UniProtKB/TrEMBL annotation:
Coiled coil: none annotated. The keyword Iron-sulfur applies. This is Putative ferredoxin. The gene is ipuE. One of its GO terms (molecular function) is metal ion binding. Keywords: Electron transport, Iron, Iron-sulfur, Metal-binding, Transport.
Length: 64
């Protein structure tokens, strides 16, 4: 499973960080990004990333 954050949609609520702090972080400008090395989500974190995706108010998280 792969995950990306659409910077054109992200508004920096950090709900993604709440649900999957291992995978998402807030950058210096206040927007979310996927941590280096987590673009391919480890199996044990996939459920957390799915919750983050489902709870992003801006639909900025894409998983495939
Ligand atoms: S919850 Fe969505 S909009 Fe908010 S910081 Fe995370 S990716 Fe961005």
């Amino acid at each position: 499973m792969k995950v990306t954050v659409d910077n054109n949609r992200c508004q920096g609520h950090a709900r993604c960080v709440y649900f999957a702090p291992e995978v998402f972080e807030i950058d210096d400008e206040g927007y979310s990004r996927v941590k280096a090395g987590y673009e391919t989500v480890p199996v044990e974190l996939q459920e957390s990333v799915k919750k983050a995706c489902a709870n992003c108010p801006e639909l900025a998280i894409k998983i495939s």
